Amino acid sequence: MKVKMVRLAKLLAAMIVLQFLAISVLAQAEEVGVTEVTVTAVAVNVIVKIDKDSRAITLKNDEGGELIFTAGPEVRNFDQLKRGDLVIMEYYSGLAIALEPKGSGLEERASDLEVDRAKVGEKPGMKVTASTYILAEVTVVDLKYRVVFIEGPVNTLVLKVSDDVDLTQIEVGQEIEALYTESYAISVVPAPKVSGTVTMKIKAVALGIGVEWGEGTLTMYDGTSHDLKVRGLTLVDIGASSIEATGEVYNLVEAKDIEKRFVAGAAGAALVGGGSAVAMKNGKGVVMKLKSAQKGVRLTLAAEGLKVTLK
Q1: Residue 1 included in any domain
Q2: So what's the pLDDT on residue 130?
Q3: Which of 75, 169, 179, 195 has a CA positioned 20 to 30 A from the CA of residue 44?
Q4: Which of 196, 246, 249, 202 is nearest to 225 (CA)?
Q5: Rounded to an integer, what distance in angstroms lies between the CA atom of residue 7 and that of residue 107?
C-alpha cells in the first residue's frame, strides 16, 4: 500500500509539472510576445559527445542524464565545438519539417520527407529528417520568427518551422499533423567566465502555484555583493515548503543588468537540468543557472518568469 501511495505521489507531481509548463508557455508568449528570447530554451551544460556528420551534440545534465540535440546551420561555430566544452545552448523543442491538416496521412509519408537547412543564397547545408510524429492543436503562430506552439496529448511544444512549410496556411485552433526532429539548437557557444554567483531563499505559497517572497545575494566577479528581491521560482514536489538555490551568472556587466525579467523559454529548459537545475536568460542577454540546494527538490519558473530586483 505504501509503495502504491509513493507511486501515486510521483505521478501527481509529474502531472503538475507538465500542466504547469504548458500554462507557462502560453503565459510567457502572451505577456512578453513571441521572440527568440522567450521561446528558445537555455541550457548550460558540458558536451560529452559530438557527431560531426549528423551534427548531433550530447549534453550531460546535472543529474547525470544525457540529452541529444541537433545543431542547425544557425550554429556557425559547430566545427570549433569539442567534447568537454561547457556551453550555453539555445534551442527549440524541435524543427518542424511538415505541418498539415489532420487526416492528411502525414505519418505514412514520414520516411520520405527531409529538408535542406541551408539559408537562402548559401551552399546546400545539413539534411534534416524528422523522427517524431504528433497530432496536435495549434495555439500560437508567429510568422516573423517562423515558430508555432502546438498542444499535444502530453505537453506544449515550441517548434521552429522549416522554410519549406507554408506557415500562412496554419491557423490558431487548427488540428494538425506534425513531423519534427526533436531538440533543435540554434546557438551553441562556449560559456564565458562566470561573472557572478547568486544565492536565493524563497518561501512557497502552494505546490506549483508560485512564491510569497524571496531574497538573495548577488556576488559580482569583483567581489562586491548586492542584496536581491526575488519572485517567480516555484516548487513541483510534494512535501517541500521552501526553496534554497545557488547559481552562476554569465554575461553580467553591471549589477543592474540582472533586473530584467528572466524566462527559461517555452521549450522547457528546466528539463535539461533534470529538474534540480534550471537555466534562464533575460532581455539583456544575462544567463543564470540555478541549482536546488535541497536534495530531491525540483525547480521551475512561474508563468511570468523570474523577477529579480536590487534592494
Answers
A1: no
A2: 57
A3: 179
A4: 196
A5: 34
